[in-house]
Known about the structure:
Blueprint: H1 3-22, E1 29-32, E2 36-47, E3 51-62, H2 65-85, E4 91-103, H3 106-113, E5 125-137, H4 144-160, E6 164-165, E7 187-191, H5 194-220, E8 224-234, E9 241-246, E10 249-254, E11 264-266, E12 272-284
Antiparallel strand pairs: 1-2, 2-12, 3-5, 3-6, 3-7, 4-5, 7-11, 8-9, 8-12, 9-10
Amino acid sequence: xxxxxxxMQRFFLFSLALIVFGGxxxxxxxxxxxxxxxxxxxxxxxxxxxxxxxxxxxxxxxxLAGDAxxxxxxxxxxxxxxxxxxxxxxxxxxxxxxxxxxxxxxxxMQAMMQGMAVNNTQSQKLSVSxxxxxxxxxxxxxxxxxxxxxxxRIVDSxxxxxxxxxxxxxxxxxxxxxxxxxxxxxxxxxxxxVKKLKEAAYQKAIENAKEQAEKLAQLTGVKxxxxxxxxxxxxxxxxxxxxxxxxxxxxxxxxxxxxESDEQPSTLFKPxxxxxxxxxxxxxx
Length: 285
């Protein structure tokens, strides 16, 4: 049989295999002469959150700057003492930045709402605020009920000390309803060691790709060769990095403008999937 006839027969068998395999799996598969077999593998692992973070805000207000600062320091010491007295293992306070701003009084806010000019000569309250991250580790060892009771203790203790727990629900324009701030998210759960989990997800994705390629090779009557290239197309929802393997050469391409975190946040206390997608090309022998 001539070389042209062999080529046409191989192309026919491979096209038939693609049609048959397409009914079995929805994962994209492609092949071309000289390129081998290219498949997209998907891998995923799940991990339970091990950290919960609550956001608290300490505020001090006064007509004079000195009064506002004095009240702020007093409230800050009271809040720190209240959280330490809870003696909860794994609970730490992380400072997340301080801000200073002036607040409009009632008459100024009413004038603004009515579209009138605001009289800036009237006295305004100076506010000093600091955002605190209340970070509790080791929650994967707690039951849902135990974790809920612990969070309630932290929230109640913070409120007794004058700490505002939860995200900022203050509307950007006083008196105007902001739907995006209608829900006060009190806690954020986080999966740690995401980079290690991502490696396991990539391993599963590569195994998935190899399994697909072996099925295709078997259906088309060809022998699967070595890997010629691997392209890491995606990973966890936060993303930010791509890993490319090509003919034995490994290159790591990272977006320098986005520092990839080793934590994956979630609003739910439940296992979080960490996924990876790879595009693998195998040669045909």
